[in-house]
Amino acid sequence: MPSPWVRSFGASAEIAVKGRKRPASAEDSDRETKGFRRRREKRARAAAFLEGNPLIVGLDLAKRRHAVWLAKRDLTPIKRFMVEHSPEGLAKLLERVEHHAKENGLDRALVDERHPQSPCAR
Question: Could you name the CATH architecture of 54-121?
Answer without folding.
Answer: 2-Layer Sandwich (3.30)
